[in-house]
Design a protein that fits this description.
With 97 residues, the chain is an alpha+beta fold. The chain has helices at residues 2-23, 68-77, 82-94, and strands spanning 26-28, 33-37, 43-49, 53-54, 57-58, 62-65.
Amino acid sequence: MVETTKRQEWNNRQQKGLDIVGTGNIVQISESVFVVKGSQNKVYRVFNYKPIKVGNKMTDDKWACECWDYKARCRKAGIDCKHITASKLFVTLHGKW
């Protein structure tokens, strides 16, 4: 039951991310910063932290968002909020900066 709810929440965020990209409510302002307008007309910045070399290993590509959902739930659960999802889709569709 809990797993089904988490999957539904993830699917919901994915759909909302698609909707954001579809309506054009996202702008990439630098190589690593996106401005995303959410469903309630609030604007959030999404940050993409590129991998860096630490010792002999490379870190993972990291994403972060200013929204409450990311800070309160998504970051802890290791999932993307709709704004991060939209930013990743934007990069996939339009290429890198």
